[in-house]
Structure formats: C-alpha cells, structure tokens
Amino acid sequence: MKADLSKRPDEVAAMFDEVSTHYDRTNTVLSAGNDILWRVATTRAVDPQPGERVLDVAAGTGTSSAAFARSGAAVVAADFSPGMIAVGRTRQAHVPNVEFVQADAMALPFGDDEFDAVTISFGLRNVADPQQALSEFFRVTRPGGRLVVCEFSTPPVPLIRSAYGAYLRVVMPALVRFASSNDAAYGYLAESIEAWPDQPTLSSWIRDAGFTSVAYRNLTAGIVALHRGVKPGLPVG
C-alpha cells in the first residue's frame, strides 16, 4: 500500500491488525527509545486531571491511554483496528479507567462536547481525510477543552532533514526486517512520514477546524512535533 491521501480505511485497519502483536516493541526499536520520551511529553501536554474524560484516538494497544489514566481521568481508547483493540484490552486489563472502543476518526461515535481533552499520537497521517478528523475532534471536545496532536514532522534544519530522510529510506527498512514480521506495513509508514505536511501546515488545519491558541513545539529536532489547540468557550459544568 502506497502512502497517499487517498488511503482506504479498511486497508489501514488491516495493516495495523497484522502488526498489532509486536507494534510497541517495533516502535521502540525504530525510534531508538525516543517513543517513550514522546509519550511523556504528550501526557504532560494533555495534562489529564482526575474526573476528566479524555479521548485517545488511534490509541493502538493503549500504552498512552494507560499513562493518561494514571492521573485518575476516565480514558476512552479509540482505534480503527480490531486487532489493536484486542491486544490493548488484554495488555491494559489491569487499568480500570480505560475503555476501548472501535471507532473511525472521521466519524466518531460520540456526542458533541463530550471530552475535556482529545489527543492522537502518530495516527492522524494514517487517516484518509485528516482535516475531517480534526473537525470531528473539535465537535466532541467540550468548550474550553484541549486538543493535543503528536505526529512525525519535518526537521527544520536541512542537515538533520536530509539525514532523517536517509534513515527512513535506508536504515529503517533494515531495522524493520529485524524487529517486525511485516516489512510492507512499515514501508508504508516510512512513506507516510515523508509525505506528511510540515508543522505550519498542520497548525493551519487545526485552526481551520475551529481551535484557538494553536501552537506547536518540536521534539527530537523536529522529527516529531507536538501540536496543541483549545476549543473556544467556557467550560460547561
């Protein structure tokens, strides 16, 4: 499957079903352990509080969801892949305040203004229409609530950008052969990273969805960017 913006949801779901069992281990290998640091940064940005409802979209096996739940927040871990959800329910069975739900990011099965925070990590670029997904995130976020998007991005320094491109095209395929049973799936992921727009473009999409106070900060020299926004209005209740 090639990386483009006409990605078929059923193909993406099937791809993640195939890699679900070893997904977390492979990510740690491919990121040289930086995925743990990115998860910590995302959790701090979401800043979940006791009693809040947090929606974790493209939650995968629920590793990030469990981190949010440690605060005492009620977390809904939503993912399009049944395989990911099955693995997640097993791995996070000891976390009582995480609920797994199969959901399409472009048509979320939730009411308006349901969540104090909505977050997605490394999943937005796999959605067929990311801007539609951002509109859905806006719809289900409560007034005054926050959005946090953690996604691969474009290193602003040309030398780092070139080196990262070489890593994606040369080094990453070799590591995938070592760490994963599905070379094609991670080949797709590498292509999707290179095809993804830069930080200002994603920021503009978040603003277009209706969020205000939109900002981002680069992690790991801009290989990853952490985007934030707030839904206008006063909190309800």
TrEMBL record:
Methyltransferase required for the conversion of demethylmenaquinol (DMKH2) to menaquinol (MKH2). It comes from Compostimonas suwonensis. Keywords: Menaquinone biosynthesis, Methyltransferase, S-adenosyl-L-methionine, Transferase. Belongs to the class I-like SAM-binding methyltransferase superfamily. MenG/UbiE family. It catalyses: a 2-demethylmenaquinol + S-adenosyl-L-methionine = a menaquinol + S-adenosyl-L-homocysteine + H(+). One of its GO terms (molecular function) is demethylmenaquinone methyltransferase activity. S-adenosyl-L-methionine binds at residues 61, 79, 104-105, 121. The lineage of its organism: Bacteria, Bacillati, Actinomycetota, Actinomycetes, Micrococcales. Its EC number is 2.1.1.163. Pathway: Quinol/quinone metabolism; menaquinone biosynthesis; menaquinol from 1,4-dihydroxy-2-naphthoate: step 2/2. One of its GO terms (biological process) is methylation. NCBIfam families: MenG_MenH_UbiE, PRK00216.1-2. It is an enzyme of class 2 (transferase). This is Demethylmenaquinone methyltransferase. PROSITE patterns: SAM_MT_UBIE (PS51608), UBIE_1 (PS01183), UBIE_2 (PS01184). CDD domains: AdoMet_MTases. The keyword DNA-binding does not apply. InterPro entries: SAM-dependent_MTases_sf (IPR029063), UbiE/COQ5_MeTrFase (IPR004033), UbiE/COQ5_MeTrFase_CS (IPR023576).
